[in-house]
Design a protein that fits this description.
The complex is a heterodimer.
Chain A: E1 3-6, E2 11-14, E3 19-21, E4 23-26, E5 32-38, E6 45-50, E7 56-59, E8 62-65, E9 75-77, E10 86-93, E11 101-103, E12 107-112
Chain B: E1 5-7, E2 10-13, E3 19-24, E4 31-38, E5 42-50, E6 53-56, E7 65-71, E8 74-79, E9 88-95, E10 104-105, E11 109-113
Parallel strand pairs in B: 2-11
Antiparallel strand pairs in B: 1-3, 3-8, 4-5, 4-9, 5-6, 7-8, 9-10, 9-11
Classes of the chains: A mainly beta, B mainly beta.
């Protein structure tokens, strides 16, 4: 079946540090891949997405590249800010899975000033 | 445009009581999802609807949980009777009919069962 595995948190960084959150997936078809972010007390919101192999999604300085050969979709940001502190979820949507989105467990990021 | 609307935002009830959570999806969205989020189990899909019809309810934990979608603009998730282990944040999300499309989440209902 389809699944998403992402690195466990929490991840604690200083402001302006480089961020990587690893995500790998298993899918039977050709999924779309997503990163969602959840700020305290709020619902999840889309951060970026990629719909086919080698696509790069980007938003707010974050980016992730759809790597079919390694079944990965790692999230990166060159210089994090305190306001980036949140929980980040990797997710996939596979049409053979009936339009359900499968979410990873989430990775909590703390950024210190 | 209003996003997904959920009510109430917070609910505190006693064990054994009936709880009803409400959701209004974004207009024009064909899919509606109910999720539960806890520290121990993370984000779990409970049930989803397509064009008001339940498609997959395999995530509903037990018969105490039920969900309905009487029309395209309203859905309810009911727990009867409620138990302390049902305490969680319940999210509703909606999307259009393509797997490449984003799910839009509501702000959630924080349920506490005493």
């Amino acid at each position: 079946g389809n699944s998403v595995t992402q690195m466990e948190g929490p991840v604690t960084l200083s402001e302006e540090a480089f961020l990587t959150i690893n995500c790998t997936y298993t899918a039977t078809g050709y999924p779309s891949l997503f990163w969602y972010v959840q700020y305290p007390g709020e619902g999840l919101q889309l951060l970026l997405k990629a719909t086919k192999a080698d696509d790069k999604g980007s938003n707010k300085g974050f980016e992730a590249t759809y790597r079919k050969e390694t079944t990965s979709f790692h999230l990166e940001k060159g210089s994090v800010q305190v306001s980036d502190s949140a929980v980040y979820f990797c997710a996939l949507s596979d049409p053979t899975g009936g339009f359900k989105t499968i979410f990873g467990a989430g990775t909590r990021l703390f950024v210190k000033a | 445009d209003a996003g997904v609307i959920q009510s109430p935002r917070h609910e505190v009830t006693e064990m054994g009581q009936e709880v009803t959570l409400r959701c209004k999806p974004i207009s024009g969205h064909d899919y509606l999802f109910w999720y539960r989020q806890t520290m121990m189990r993370g984000l779990e899909l409970l049930i989803y609807f397509n064009n008001n019809v339940p498609i997959d309810d395999s995530g509903m934990p037990e018969d105490r949980f039920s969900a309905k979608m009487p029309n395209a603009s309203f859905s309810t998730l009911k727990i009867q009777p409620s138990e302390p282990r049902d305490s969680a944040v319940y999210f509703c999300a909606s999307s259009t009919e393509r797997s490449t499309d984003t799910q839009y989440f509501g702000p959630g209902t924080r349920l506490t069962v005493l």
